[in-house]
Amino acid sequence: MTEKFIPYCLPDITELEIKEVVETLQSGWLAKGPKTIEFEKKFAEFVGAKYAVAMNSCTAALHIALVAADIGPGDEVITTSMTFAASVSTILHVGAVPVFVDIDPKTGLMDVEKIEEKITDRTKAIVPVHYAGQACDLDRIYGIAKKYNLFVSEDAAHGIYTEYKGKRLGNQALGTVSFSFYATKNLTTGEGGMLVTESKEIADRARVLITHGMNKNAWKRYAQGGSWMYDIQEPGYKYNMFDVQASLGLAQLERLGEMQNNRESKAQIYIKGLSEVKGLELQKVDGGTSKHAWHLFIIRVTEEFPMSRDELIDYLAEKNIGTSVHFIPVHMMTAYREFGSQSFLPNTEKWFSEIMSLPLYSTLEIEDIDRIVKTINQIPLRKPKDFAEENLIRLISNSQKGMATPPSPRDRM
């Protein structure tokens, strides 16, 4: 009998979330309103920030952070290519130029040692990405930012519950921190995001920008005692969160500790079951400076493993196990190649050729993790002669076609 399919990711929705959303629907206030304001307040308290501005996505938060900091045409912004496109597209949206820094080959995080060599007189900001749920070296990043007078916009899409030196991301942030509440995240509102900051000036401007540039509290114009009169202070965007999303977020925030404990316990099962598999490498976790949020569980499939990364993905799919890859480097995408053409990112490209993400979410059953671990452990080792035989078959086949030997799937990465 075919074993059940294990999805790569599923949201954790209970009767509490359903109740909160239904109550909001019944309240008659669906757009931005009291639930959104409450969610902002409670999220700011959760991370330890002065201000939190709820938006319809983390992409919006990243964009608004740069706009509010007056990053614009001709400016350069240093970031990583090992991220989702939004980290980079928002730089382009303000007219600035992304400059890529290579990653640490053990963590996948931005290599702080390489930041200063990328700084020019046009550099105005750094966008570090807290990848997979682990924090970047913020002390050194902010030290560099202070030295060169640069703005820092932290991409914490993976970083809800991540800690750096005992404090949650967003706690006393010296720049801005953007969080994601997308359907796959540790806390979800379906779609949604949050910008947190210690700067009242940035928070106030962000609130105006995300509602078409309307003056403060214009959202109340349809409430009792509200006024139809409003002003557009500057051309803005339609980026605000609405109360249906916020009610879902409030319920998820109430349950986040429980959901996070589930993630962490399941990550530990993976670590115990896969850390001794020859040819597999796990993401290095710096327990001394960072608490991992385990948004992703990443493995690297090296040359010593019996299969290539792509072959393992296909093999697990045949066994009804969903997986993913985080990420295809941004500089390898058609829309961004011109910005990566001058970059030398060997660690990023090698990391991409080896990584894959295994299922990890709070509702994932223990027996499902056991099955995934067992399936990987039972893959037979490939003998050295197998490699020689494969290469010989490939050489003969291509010689018959009058072709040079093409790269293997691993080499093409």
Would you kindly provide a written description of the structure presented here, covering whatever features stand out?
The protein is an alpha/beta fold. The protein is built from 13 helices and 13 strands. Helix 1 (15-27) packs antiparallel against helix 7, helix 3 packs parallel to helix 4 (86-93) and helix 7 crosses helix 11. The two termini are 36 Å apart.
Count, helices = 13
Shape: globular
Our estimate of the beta-strand percent is: 5-15%
Largest sheet: 7 strands, mixed
Number of strands: 13
Helix content: 25-40%
Query: Structural class, from helix and strand content?
Result: alpha/beta
Secondary-structure element series: HHEHEHEEHEEEEEHHEEEHHHEHHH
Strand order of the largest sheet: 1-9-8-5-4-2-3
Low-confidence spans: 403-413
Mean of pLDDT: 92
**How far do the termini sit from each other?**
36 Å
Sequence-ordered SSE layout with sheet pairings:
Elements: H1 15-27, H2 34-47, E1 51-55, H3 58-68, E2 76-80, H4 86-93, E3 97-101, E4 123-127, H5 138-148, E5 151-156, E6 163-164, E7 167-168, E8 176-180, E9 193-197, H6 200-209, H7 243-274, E10 280-282, E11 290-291, E12 297-301, H8 309-318, H9 337-340, H10 346-354, E13 355-358, H11 366-377, H12 384-400, H13 409-412
Short précis:
The protein has helices spanning 15-27, 34-47, 58-68, 86-93, 138-148, 200-209, 243-274, 309-318, 337-340, 346-354, 366-377, 384-400, 409-412, and strands spanning 51-55, 76-80, 97-101, 123-127, 151-156, 163-164, 167-168, 176-180, 193-197, 280-282, 290-291, 297-301, 355-358. It has 413 residues and is of the alpha/beta class.
